[in-house]
Specification:
Order of helices and strands of chain A: EEEEEHHHHEHEHEEEEEHEEH
Shape of chain B: elongated
Number of strands of chain B: 23
CATH topology of the largest domain in chain A: C8orf32 fold
Distance between the termini of chain A: 11 Å
Strand content of chain B: 5-15%
CATH architecture of the largest domain in chain A: Roll
Structural class of chain A: alpha+beta
CATH class of the largest domain in chain A: Alpha Beta
Helix content of chain A: 10-25%
Strand content of chain A: 35-45%
Radius of gyration of chain A: 20 Å
Number of helices of chain B: 29
Largest interface: A-B, 28 and 34 residues
Distance between the termini of chain B: 102 Å
Oligomer: heterodimer
Structural class of chain B: alpha/beta
Number of domains of chain A: 2
Number of helices of chain A: 8
């Protein structure tokens, strides 16, 4: 499937700002399930944009605007072709016990994604008594069951949580948004000795060809998790939609949790009074909708 | 006459400790060991009172230095804990060679470790050390991975702490490869002890330590390919021991000293904001923690940092020493594996061992620790603030808190078994007693590694410090290394001439500008309240009070108390009001607040101001704090006002006399003159229109005009100029246009203009001259000010006031508007000073490239 994604972040300052500096992680990944056909970034007021690749392999862009400005707008636009890559059955059929053994033998390589991290402490979801992973369970099924359990037991409700809401509160209130569900799922997985990472990206919320096809995502900006499978593949699971990540998911960046992949992180000098506006649009491009 | 043999009367000062076991200075038989023999001889030849005298002189010299690094705590100067002992630590030839070779070996190996960890992590892949130690290290900042560090040397300047386990068996206790602290103490200790006790150094063959700062500067300059690189020292500017050392190093090496807010990133280059504009920075000697360096690259809510700095470094456009992320080399949980690390990277056998160190995350080691806790010292794996954030808790000084945190987070703690170190004599209360300590040795890497032939010995403590970057725990000792072992290393490149001087940073200029403004404002307010008090407000009749009310309002308005302006009638008692504007710390415009602000402005740039000036401010500040606690009477209020006025004069005089009249000083003056001009205007702006309403030309009783002159400190100037009683237009003319009257706006602006004209600008941006033109324009406006026409001084009838205009013949509203407009024009000067010298918006605004959009 082909998509054109456009992601605009706009700041309007009450009092002119100066010395703005920002780092962006809004460049979609090129990997087995998606190809980047084109990509461009526009910053206004105009600024030179530089780029590097971070510890996790994400493309990072950065710029500075030292002089006074009243607003700042950043638009990332990409044309992406996606396909579904399904893991071989053999990887999903191993038992949880066998899988754990394999992870233990690769502890060094998988270290980052098995340890607690800033947004994913491993001691905050104790109120969930349910046991998701027994040694004899089939690994793939157990993962899907957890994915579904979060979907069934938590309400998607925007505006009630923020990035600083701890997992314990999400568990207590049984609601949140995609990033809360992703962090919760990571916490349960890592507590069970299963390597998993946080993915930021976009989702096509409505299938234009099918009626009643709504998928949930925060205005097309989305987050889900990837779980490590014995055999070396990362498998995308989307607890917000009770799905595996497929053609309609576009992956941008991954890391231990949200703080490794924040789409835009910046500072400026000036009054704290600012208006933020984020517009994400995602549309299938013509050749593909027929 | 009987001859008294002095020597026979003298008691051996080392009597009690000669035969003590495990002494580094004496053999069990009581003879002095080799490196100590000359020291013991010299000291034994001194009388007890002589030694006591010398120790006193040592303390005195160090206390004088200590004044400069004491913490600023409201109301007092912290006690100086830095104490230097008379008896130095002395090393033999073999001992020193072993230490210095071992130091270089270890520094190279751990630098290789840092480089490996931030790139391929081979040491972890090959399982030479447990990967958890490295990957759970709070100082391992993944955000800094994959950056190419020149020569692969993360720590080019570092230090190690060693302990003598007996018989010269030196072992490593700690690494300080990230931010080595104490080199200023090494240099100062040597300088002071050799002044107080020159005989010691005549007897010993001691290698000099002073050259070390030259090597350090050379190393820093060598980081940049440019011929005259701009090197600066980056500090977070927190007052205390660390800042004292930083200011010392910067002064010693001629580096500018900067705080994160002084730097600005633009198009992948980093610049220092200076009064001349933005100056590109080539090398940063970093004294700010890696995790606090760049809030974007390494998110850290606690630090402002320099947004974007890491990306400039990543691009190779600035060199940072020591490299950000270097902290991993100080990880104490690695000490246990130092032998393996040295073998892995250098394929050599280790020359210096680490003291036994146990990691609490390892079950077996933890068991051992539990059983032997009495003999062990508990320490965090890193002293970084980040670690305590991860633990969600931090230890206080009391014993139990560290252990409690360690129980919950064993992964972040080690326990060390410190061998009972060999003893050395320490002079205390007139006798030598045994004491034991650590030795800190400093190195510089680069093409030819250098180990500072000397170091800092400090007393052993039973607990780990809770405060990073402090060493002064008790007695320090100078460290003597025989000169003969130090190879003559020629400087790597000819000593660079200091080249062009870099200008003072915007922050320094801005701080001094504000110090000038605050002190002037404090003086103004104090003088004005004093004048009002002398009118004996409390004894005035009500009608009389009403005559003076405009003046009172003007003074209040000048301090920002605009609510007073709306009052029609004066309050019955002004004492409470006067008191709050003098002493209330919560009142932003009070004299006390102004002095506090001035003091903080000065503290933040203390390296640019003379200690004498600081002392004046300390005095006033202390005085005001005490006075604010006392019961207020009119007499006391008058005393306080008088004291403030004279202290402000004392400060200006002291600054004038003790500070170099350089750019920094000029900014102090710019602030002072600007504030004075604004002060005069704000009094006139309120007072004149109000007085006009009740003014009668021939009113003999218009005493309020005399008081107005006194408020502005210009009564005497008026009398000399006009030889007449006070008339309104003359007053206006005098305090707006008077060329030689210190309170006049004209005088202040011309002095401001002159001060800006003396600033040492170079380069092709004539920033200051632009502003000077603007000020000249303003002077012309002032000259043509429509209210105040110069009276004809030739007139014989000057003092009768009959043949001339002595009142302002304009509508009150018009006058008020004219004053508002003039004030606004003068306020623009402040904005321009800010834009041009401090915030650099001026540069951006005129940069044509940036505005092509």
């Amino acid at each position: 499937m082909r998509f054109r994604v456009s992601h605009t972040t706009e700041y309007k300052y009450a009092v002119p700002a100066s010395e703005s500096f920002a780092e962006l992680r809004v460049w979609p990944q090129a990997n087995a399930s998606q190809k980047i056909l084109s990509r461009r970034l526009e910053v206004s007021p105009e600024a030179r944009v530089d780029q590097y690749v971070d510890y996790f392999g994400n493309n990072v862009e950065f710029f500075s605007i030292p002089y006074r400005h009243n607003s700042l707008s950043v638009t990332s636009e990409a044309n992406v072709e996606t396909c579904t890559v399904q893991p071989p059955q053999s990887m999903l059929e191993v038992s949880v016990g066998e899988a754990r053994q394999i992870f233990n033998s690769r502890r060094y390589q998988l270290f980052e994604f098995m340890e607690p991290s800033h947004h994913v402490p491993l001691d905050q979801h104790k109120r969930i008594r349910k046991k998701f992973f027994r040694q004899a369970d089939a690994y793939g099924e157990a993962l899907l069951a957890l994915n579904e359990w979060i979907y069934r037991n938590f309400d998607y409700k925007s505006g009630e949580t923020s990035i600083s809401t701890p997992i314990a509160d999400v568990v207590a209130q049984r609601r949140g948004v995609c990033q809360d569900f992703a962090h919760l799922m990571l916490a349960i997985l890592r507590s069970n000795g299963i390597p998993a990472r946080y993915v930021s990206g976009y989702i096509e919320a409505y299938d234009p060809e099918v009626t009643d096809s709504a998928l949930v995502g925060a205005a097309a900006s989305h987050a889900w998790v990837e779980v490590y499978l014995p055999g070396g593949m990362w498998w995308g699971l989307d607890p917000t939609n009770n799905q595996t990540a497929g053609e309609r998911h576009i992956e941008v960046a991954f890391g231990r949790d949200y703080s490794d992949v924040a789409p835009m992180r910046g500072t400026y000098k000036g009054a704290t009074d600012q208006r933020l506006n984020v517009i994400v649009s995602l549309e299938r491009t013509k050749e593909d909708t027929k | 006459m009987p001859i008294v043999d002095e020597a026979s009367l003298r008691v051996d000062p080392f009597q009690g400790i000669r035969g003590a076991s495990s002494s580094a200075a004496f053999t069990p038989e009581g003879a002095a060991r080799d490196p100590y023999a000359p020291i013991v001889d010299v000291i034994s030849s001194c009388s007890k009172s002589d030694l006591v005298q010398r120790q006193k002189r040592l303390n005195h010299a160090i206390d004088e230095l200590g004044l400069q690094f004491s913490d600023v705590t409201p109301g007092r100067i912290d006690g100086n804990q830095w104490r230097l002992d008379l008896f130095p630590l002395s090393l033999g030839v073999d001992e020193w060679q072993c230490i210095s070779k071992g130091v270089v070996q270890r520094a190279l190996a751990f630098n290789a470790y840092a480089q490996d960890l931030y790139s391929e992590q081979k040491i972890l892949r090959e399982r030479v050390i447990p990967h958890g130690l490295a990957l759970r290290d709070p100082a391992f900042l993944r955000e800094l991975s994959g950056i190419e560090v020149p020569l692969g040397e993360y720590s080019q300047f570092g230090a190690f702490d060693l302990v003598d386990a007996g018989g010269g068996n030196w072992q490593i206790v700690e690494h300080h490869m990230g931010t080595p602290f104490g080199v200023s103490h090494v240099l100062q200790n040597r300088r002071i002890l050799s002044q107080v006790f020159p005989e010691l150094y005549e007897a010993l063959d001691v290698a000099p330590v002073a050259g070390f700062s030259t090597y350090l500067l050379e190393m820093l300059r060598a980081q940049s390919p440019r011929t005259n690189p701009h090197v600066l020292l980056l500090t977070d500017g927190q007052p205390g021991q660390a800042y004292f050392e930083e200011a010392f190093i910067a002064r010693h090496m001629g580096l500018s000293i900067a705080q994160p807010g002084d730097l600005l990133v633009r198009d992948s280059q980093v610049y220092l904001k200076t009064i001349r504009g933005l100056e590109r920075v080539d090398v940063i000697y970093r004294r700010v923690e890696s995790s606090a360096l760049d809030p974007i690259a390494v998110p850290n809510a606690r630090a402002k940092g320099v947004p974007g700095l890491i990306n400039v470094w990543r691009k190779g456009n600035v060199a940072i020493v020591n490299a950000p992320g270097v902290g991993v080399t100080d990880n104490r949980s690695l000490l246990r594996y130092s032998d393996q690390i040295i073998k892995h990277y250098l394929n050599e056998s280790p020359l210096l061992r680490s003291v036994p160190t146990y990691h609490l995350n390892d079950i077996d080691q933890r068991d051992y620790v539990r059983e032997h806790m009495d003999e062990l010292i508990l320490k965090p794996v890193q002293d970084h603030d980040m670690l305590w954030q991860l633990c969600g808790d931090r230890p206080v000084r009391s014993d139990g808190s560290m252990a409690r945190i360690a129980k919950r987070h064993p992964e972040y703690f080690v326990a060390q078994s410190i061998p009972e170190p060999a003893h050395l004599p320490r002079f205390k209360d007139g006798v030598f007693e045994p004491s034991s300590g650590y030795l800190r040795v400093f190195f510089i890497l680069g093409k030819e590694p250098i180990v500072l032939p000397g170091g800092m010995a400090r007393q052993k403590t039973s607990q780990h410090r809770t405060n990073r970057l402090t060493v002064v725990s008790g007695g320090l000792k100078d460290v003597c290394v025989p000169d003969s072992v130090v190879e003559e290393a020629a400087p790597k490149r000819p000593h660079a001439r200091s080249g062009k001087r870099f200008s003072i940073s915007s922050r320094v200029a801005e701080s001094l500008y504000w110090a000038g403004r605050y002190i002037e404002r404090a003086e103004n307010t104090a003088r004005q309240f004093h004048t009002l008090e002398r009118l004996r407000w409390d004894q005035m009749a009500h009608a009389e009070q009403r005559t003076y009310w405009p003046l009172f309002q003007a003074v209040a308005a000048a301090t920002g108390q605009t609510n007073i302006l709306k009052r029609k009638k004066p309050p019955r008692d002004t004492l409470a009001f006067s008191k709050s504007l003098l002493l209330d710390a919560a009142e932003g415009a009070s004299v006390r607040s102004c002095i506090t602000s001035a003091r903080y402005s000065v503290e933040s740039v203390r390296e640019t101001i003379s200690p004498e000036c600081r002392e004046v401010l300390e005095d006033v500040s202390l005085y005001l704090n005490q006075e604010s606690k006392r019961k207020m009477t009119r007499a006391r209020l008058a005393l306080i006002c008088e004291r403030i006025v004279s202290e402000a004069a004392r400060f200006s005089g002291t600054a004038e006399r003790t500070m170099p009249h350089d750019d920094a000083w000029q900014f102090f003056r710019v602030g002072m003159f600007y504030e004075r001009a604004v002060g005069t205007l704000s009094v006139l702006k309120v007072a004149i229109p109000r007085i006009m309403k009740t003014y009668r030309e021939v009113d003999e009783e218009s005493a309020d005009l005399t008081a107005l002159l006194r408020l502005l400190g210009s009564l005497d100037a008026y009398r000399r100029e006009f030889r007449s009683r006070a008339y309104m237009d003359r007053i206006c003319s005098l305090v707006l246009q008077g060329k030689h009257v210190p309170s006049s706006v004209n005088f202040c602006l011309r002095n401001l203009d002159y001060a800006i004209g003396t600033l040492s600008f170079t380069g092709n941006r004539p920033l200051g001259s632009e502003l000077q033109k603007e000020i000249k324009g303003l002077l012309a406006v002032l000259e043509a000010f429509p209210l105040a026409e110069r009276p004809n001084l030739e007139d014989d009838n000057l003092d009768t006031g009959i043949f001339e205009t002595t009142a302002i013949k304009r509508p009150v509203d018009f006058v008020a508007k004219e004053f508002e407009e003039l004030t606004a024009k003068v306020e623009v000067v402040h904005e321009r000073i800010e834009d041009i010298f401090f915030s650099h918006q001026d540069v951006f605004a005129r940069d044509p490239v940036l505005f092509e959009m």
